[in-house]
Amino acid sequence: MSLTFDFVQPQPEPAADRVTLFADVILPLPLPKLYTYRVPFELNDQVVIGGRVIVQFGAKKTLSCIVAAVHETPPANYQAKYILEFIDDAPVVTQPQLKLFRWMADYYLCTLGEVINAALPAALKLSSESRVQLHPAFEAETNPYPLSEQEKKIVEALSTGEEGKSMTFTEVGDLLGIASFHKYIKSLMQKDVVFLFEHLSDKYSPKVVKKVRLAHHYVAEAALEQLFTQLASKAKQLDVLMRYLQRVPVYQNEHANHKGMEKAALTSAPHLSPSAVNTLIKNGVLEQFDVIVSRFPMEDDEAANMHFTLSEAQQEAHDDIMRQFQEKDIVLLHGVTGAGKTEIYINLIQQALEGGGQVLYLLPEIALTAQIVTRLMRVFGSRLGVYHSKFSDNERVEVWNGVLSGRFQVVVGVRSSVFLPFDNLALLIVDEEHESSYKQYDPAPRYNAREVALMMANFQGAKTLLGSATPSVETYYQTRTGRYGLVLLTKRFGEAGLPEIELVDTRKSREQKTMLNHFTPELMQEMERKLAAKEQVILFQNRRGYAPFINCLDCGWIPKCKNCAVSLSYHKHAHELRCHYCGYHDRMPVECPACGSRNIKTVGFGTEKLEDDLKIMLPAASVQRMDLDTTRAKNSYQQIISDFEKQTTNVLVGTQMVTKGLDFANVSLVGIINADSIIHYPDFRAHERAFQMFVQVSGRAGRKGKKGKVIIQTGDPQQVIFDKVIRNDYLEFYEYEILQRREHGYPPFMRVIRLTVKHVDPVAAERAAIMLTQELVDRLGREAVLGPEAPYIFRIRNFYLQEITIKLSREHTVLRSAKTDILESINLVRDHKDFKQARIAADVDPM
Q1: What are 128-184's pLDDT values in tens digits?
Q2: The CA-based dihedral angle spanning residues 117, 122, 123, 129, taken in that order and rounded to the nearest 10 degrees
Q3: Which CATH number fits domain 312-489: 3.40.50.1000, 3.40.50.150, 3.40.50.2000, 3.40.50.300?
Q4: How many CA within 13 A on the CB side of residue 728?
Q5: What are the pLDDT digits (tens) for 540-552?
Q6: What pTM value is reported for the model?
Q7: Domain Helicase ATP-binding, which positions (predicted)?
Q8: Which residues are annotated as a binding site for Zn(2+)?
Q9: Which residues are annotated as a binding site?
């Protein structure tokens, strides 16, 4: 049968004392309004704001959504459908979250549904295509919970056929022959019989640890002595058994033997034979078994609650922060790279927890999360949760529920952590607050996690600490106006001093023909010197891939992306051409398709090319690369960082990822390969980004007492910005930059909103943009509206782009009124018969 939802029987008219309730729900769709559904009378007591319900939307589609409000007013323009099922009897989205989500939708010119869609992990968003799978640990014989007939049908269907079989919600409804089946799935989930996932690629895979234990009949002393006699001539097996008995006190604690030990601890031990371990298992001496463990294991009490002493400078900064928190809600900690800001953060977190509050510690990159989590886990143990996009959906749900239940009092994570269900925040830390990684570019909401964090703290009465060695111009301006507090930390931690910075002229080296591939002789000699001294090197190149493009030297042909107005980059490892905007890829041609010539060469260089060159030029060194291509796998960040920390890697080549707060004790040299490409970018923030990047990557050198050195390769050593970088003079840089911003009307003096019109037809895109511009000019004035114009990359994913830039006063009333005018203008264009297919994206505070 086909699953439909016309099953609701006509309800009798409610008695006079009955109350008919309606619920406004947030559907995870880009809809401008909330939809109102009727609450079945018998479920009146179950409806909770922030809980999930199942509703029918459209003819056949079913979705889970969030209850935003409950009232007694029916909708005026349509007949309210009944809510089909209640998933939760307690909120999964808290009241403070709902308030924040409403603010985000309003501020970032998007819908509440788009915010909810971005906020909730996929496993909390169910639809008619959600899938059900048996829990890998479920065994019918040992299941302690009774199952209803309907539940048994579902389990039997999932148990039949191939392992890991799954069914859609629609298929479950067909199987049971009823429409109101969600309660059975919910019941099976609560009994740990099934799991849910949204796509086949998200299928649940529990973390399983293989363990071994001594077979029960050998635990008795006499049997064990007999076993020793049997193994007397089998030294390798005896060694394994002895190691097991050393680790597991069988005689003192029989329960310890029942728990056993990880098999890997035996098979990976340097002096033990893996085959001997397997022989003991085969002969029944050891028993092998699997244990499903949490992805966030509880730490031993001894491992947590570590204490450390702040240096005098750190203590002064800490005390100053606490003093300023008495008067201001937001404080900027402006500390030089390597000053020890993390220790101050940890101390503040401990104080917040002692007061009974929650803490969110935001970081801009997953790479930083991997390194800092180890330090934080030693202090906070099982109270610490970790949240970022490399986690599976099931892991993210585990953290979400952990925050709701109070298990995780501290969360460290990247920008999406601002969506977590905190309701008692005491402290919010935004480390490296200047980073553009806090900005979400696509899809909506195009939010900046730093700004959302500030509003989140405001709503919950929490204090916010922003930290950076190179604060954003906007943030530092707020300290000058007195809105934010300012605390300085001007000395590096311990004996470390700031690195020596040397500019090397690549133009001169090329003229003298002394360049070694893309390295000046000065940088190569310094690398060889540092590696000979057993020290490590970081090289920064702000472009991934092997080469930005290839071309035919005979006819000039350059391969372009078929979807975007960009050339294809060459990736040698995959031996393919790849678009960095849409992901399109093609094989590397042997001959030019235009003229047939085989004279095809790569032009320019990226991190992959540098890695290849270094492996040839420095054969004794271990070279590793950290960029988007090498960190796609879940644990790849952690592995690369771990290898570098253990010094199994000597040279780390990377993109912006290597500039952001990483702390390596043995790095004494940093090389910036092509500084000019960063400075000469067509954007009003180009100089700010360049200064931040150069100072941040320089800060990776000489952090633990060693004198660090930085070599910057540039074709224009006279650039004004280099002098400020060499002297590490942020204040002078800020004064210069703020004058430019004031003169040309850019943030922090004006609010910028960028509208992008997209259409598959370039003419239609231009016409729609012209119409939108005219509507905006009529409402906001010509001086506030710039454009439209095609951006530098005018086609992406087969959509032609036109951009309109709006500059507005920062006054709240003006901004709110202007946003209403912008939305009205956008809707007018969208409703025009010629532009139904046009897409218009609003980006508030673009980076």
Answers
A1: 667 788 887 777 777 778 899 999 999 988 888 776 688 887 788 888 888 777 778
A2: 90
A3: 3.40.50.300
A4: 19
A5: 898 888 888 898 9
A6: 0.79
A7: 322-489
A8: 552, 555, 561, 564, 579, 582, 592, 595
A9: 552, 555, 561, 564, 579, 582, 592, 595
